[in-house]
Amino acid sequence: MEGLINIQHFGAKLRSRDGMFTVYLPDLSGGGNARTEEFAPAHIQTILLHPKTSLSTDAALLAERNGVSCIILDEEGEPTIFLAGTHPSRALEIWKHQLLLHGTPRGLDFARQWLCSKVRRKLDWLPKLRSYRQDQPDALRVINNTATSLQDTLLKMGDLSLRKVTEAAAELRGLEGNGQKIYLAMINFLLPSQYKFDGRSRLPSLDLFNAMLNYGYGILYNWVERALWESGVNPYFGFLHTGERKHKALLFDFIEPYRPWVDRVIFKLCVSKIATLQHADPRSGGGLWLNAEGRKLVAKSVYEKFRQKKIEVGDQTWSLRQAIAKDAGRFAKNVYA
Length: 337
Hints:
The chain has 337 residues and is α/β, with parallel strands linked by helices.
């Protein structure tokens, strides 16, 4: 990612020298091929530090003076610690604007745009579903009815007045929820019998489809949260979802447009009968867990989709994984407008 120093090499050290960030990368093989890389602070926005790496106080001061965000990740790659100086950095300025937008029509409009994008991506999938079922009148009927309902949802979301923010937020959640139920009912209808499910279930997942969907969403949550932190955006300060302590409200808002891509991946694994009950194990108390092979299957499929699928962001084409980062960066700029 442009503007990012991602330090994950075991034993790597971030230092400063002559006003530049220097990253020392040791040669763990003992071959004497250690190297040092330099980065100008003016070109860096975010520094990510993985476990078993280190940061000097001089480098931390250089970052603070140049408004560069320093984030420490845990063993799972989850952002855990944000290093903030006593003077407002770019990230803190973004956080301030996020808070100022909370509870305002403009803030809620960001969430509405993300929900509308989610609905449009669901609609974009339906022609492909139709194309494989031209000789299945019942399936075509369900798909067409779903298209009509989602188009109605999209129109109502777009026409909704946001002047009374609390009431509008509740109505947006209701519209999205009703549309989601109809969309999931369509997916359930189209699935082979062994994959059918009775609504969404999370903890625990009550069936194989939900177990795979939840794991795929978990991967997506990690990518989206990291993109937000890297762009200087605080995932806790949201507009539509509740903002309780330890509740990443903006993450839940911002992730919505990307969920349909995970839905497609899991649906394909089921209709192709690639996934089976051998990919999951029963859990005590009921429900299913994906086992190691199941997690590997879902992760590989989601990674491939988000690496290979290209979409437009602005006037350029990016992979889905890149698009998440670009959208996060664009949002960071838009909160100032």
